[in-house]
Amino acid sequence: MSLVEINFDGIVGPSHNYAGLSLGNIASSSHGGDTSYPRAAALQGLGKMRSNMELGLAQGFLLPLPRPNRVLIRDLALGADAPRQLIAAAWSASSMWTANAATVSPAPDTADGRCHLTPANLVTMAHRAQEWRDTKAQLDIAFGDSQHFAVHDAILPTFGDEGAANHMRFCEGHGASGVEVFVYGTQGGKFPARQHEQASRAVARLHGLAPDKCVLIEQNPEAIAAGAFHNDVVSVANERVLFTHERAFADKQGAYDAIAAAFPALQVVEVPESAVSLEEAIRTYLFNAQLLTLPTGEMALVVPTECQESAAVWSWCEHMLATNGPIRKVIPVDVKQSMANGGGPACLRLRVVADPATVDPRFMLDEAKLERVEAVVAENWPEQIDPADIGSDALAKTVIEAREALLSVLSLDTLA
Ligand code: SUG
């Protein structure tokens, strides 16, 4: 069996809109009320998937969830006079950010030798807390082979869990056993700390991780207060490398030492505040990048184009490439529609180390399928959504039919 990293990107749903729902997510707040472009958003996401496949990497996807969400509308008794924010929650396309779909522990790390997945409960925000059951329905199909996978329920909502966005894995090659790092928050000033330490600990236990192969680290409250609502806004890991802003963790040296104690081969690539301020890192999403191992063995960093447009960030990237560190390429991608809601290239994907042959093939992507999905999006996704359209019957019909068209092309009508 050959284990590789498969990136499962969320296909941006037809109801993609800017409702300003995420307190502590500066892009979401500042774009609240803007007109959105769901068709362009979905095509941008699919373009990123194509570009990664062209690098020779395995690519999968997860589907948009049913919106407007009739279950939430029923459970909260949302009539036409309900608060706009709650109606918008039922329409949110936030499941596109699959880094928050689940936490994943690959088979080599777990006690029973299976890959474990726990959907994130996302309890901090109503529009996200509605996701996990429908997400799990997809995980149950995509990773339904119980010889190789175990899909859990989300953990108790008392403890907020944001999934892979607050989780990193260090290893010497993806198929080798790794050290898993869980990053939790305790405070964020006027913004919520979304990941609870006890959620991280529970996920580690559920997945059967060895205690000496787990590290718990606290996010820097200053980073949360500056808009790093998930750890993956200020750091990302791949194999031996931790690429991080110097202000990501509450106790920087303590964090590096704790990871190195469990994983001595650790290589830290730290970006100092003097080169890129925390604010600029959060604005450009330099760290919300996909840090990928290419088939050549080199590492590439897939960053949003916003990084190229920032003098400070781009000159730091050029400096990094010139100094011959472990990251050998920087590849900008345009995901501006997602970025305006606080979702960069890394938010849009869930990493699963597995043998692709053990995954339900309907969730794996190749060029021919990508073209079919693009055609469905081009024909069915609304070109734009104005905030006043949210809640309208006409738009609901368009959004529901668009998703159904996608399910049908992918032979996944069972998720309707
Ligand atoms: O949870 N935005 C998402 C962005 C998630 C990014 N994910 C990672 N960092 N892994 C969030 O804040 C915006 C929705 C709105 O405002 O309509 C939103 O949910």
Q: Could you give a short description of this structure?
A:
The protein has helices at 26-31, 38-54, 70-75, 84-91, 126-129, 132-142, 197-206, 221-225, 252-262, 278-284, 305-308, 311-322, 336-339, 367-380, 393-409; strands spanning 4-10, 58-62, 102-105, 115-119, 149-151, 167-170, 179-184, 214-218, 235-238, 241-245, 267-271, 290-293, 299-304, 327-333, 349-354. The protein has 416 residues and is of the alpha/beta class.
What does this protein structure show overall?
Substrate binds at residues 19-28, 100, 127-128, 194, 232, 341. One of its GO terms (molecular function) is N-succinylarginine dihydrolase activity. Keywords: Arginine metabolism, Hydrolase. It comes from Qipengyuania nanhaisediminis. The chain has 416 residues and is an alpha/beta fold. Helices cover 33% and strands 18% of the residues. It is built from 15 helices and 15 strands. The strands form five sheets. Strands 2-1-15 form a three-stranded mixed β-sheet, with helices on one face. The mean pLDDT is 98. Residues 18-22, 25, 28, 92, 94, 97, 99-100, 128, 165, 229-230, 232-233, 341-343, 347 line the site of N~2~-(3-carboxypropanoyl)-L-arginine.
